[in-house]
């Protein structure tokens, strides 16, 4: 029994949506949303063990979740600091932290797709064609015939952008870009444009607060119990003109917003000398303050993803 790509595409889209709207405490929900796809794969394999030889499959946190321990030790923090210090100058700044975050995200989703690629119905010949993809996503297109055609055009544009070698089909590497637009700049551009189009009711090329609060995927107002759309709107509106423009929305859709916000707060807490960089000692000095901090789930996932 093979897995429907439509189902996996839905998982991929929800990953971007959750990363953007902050409805999950997990900064990389694709790591954990992949469990659903893994369950489907495992069911088709009659319970075959995952890549790591255990029931955790591709989930890098399976051993940690079993232990039920969410504490970050001094060793964890020093090892993590070393991994984030790309230029090896003994300090990490915000750009290095965000670069580390993006590198991990790409590695996680690449592993996720590789783990299920052979089980996807449409890729049983080793690739996904445009025709196969459009057939799979047709059920997600809604509205009038004209609206559906616009949605189809947007989907074709994302497929073309994901097709980096231009052969009109996607291999497992390229499928990552299609399912996770945040991993490829051009695919993210098309994804963001479509999100703007769906939300921008008055077609002025930007979102006011009322338009922002509408969930572009489901056409409903975002749930204030799962996140604070008013606060997010205020923080995203960097130029303070009272609107969310394309670049601001792109930042949101990239999934960087919540990570960047959390890491800025971490820097403010730990940066003792005010140079806007962290030494390993500065990071370790707030070890007892990290649990419960916005940065905690991010750091925790990075530590266990890299098995530090």
Please describe the biggest sheet, giving its number of strands, its sense, and whether it closes into a barrel.
Answer: 2 strands, antiparallel
Global geometry: globular
Radius of gyration: 20 Å
As a percent range, the share of strand residues is under 5%
Distance between the termini: 37 Å
Order of SSEs:
HHHHEHEHHEHHHEEHHHEHHH
Low-confidence stretches: 16-68
Number of contiguous helices: 16
* Strand line-up across the major sheet: 1-6
Task: Please identify the structural class as seen in this structure.
Answer: mainly alpha
Give the averaged pLDDT, no decimals.
81
| Count of β-strands | 6
The amount of helix comes to 55-70%
Any overview of this molecule?
With 308 residues, this protein is mainly alpha-helical. The protein has a domain at 5-119 and 198-258. The protein is built from 16 helices and six strands. The chain starts with a helix and ends with a helix. Residues 16-68 have low confidence and may be disordered.
Write the layout of secondary structure elements.
Elements lengths: L4 H17 L7 H16 L17 H6 L6 H11 L6 E3 H23 L11 E2 H8 L7 H18 L6 E2 L1 H8 L5 H15 L9 H4 L1 E2 L4 E2 L7 H8 L9 H8 L2 H15 L6 E3 H6 L1 H4 L5 H10 L3
Antiparallel strand pairs: 1-6, 2-3, 4-5
Helix pairs in contact: 1-2, 2-5, 5-8, 5-13, 7-8, 7-9, 9-12
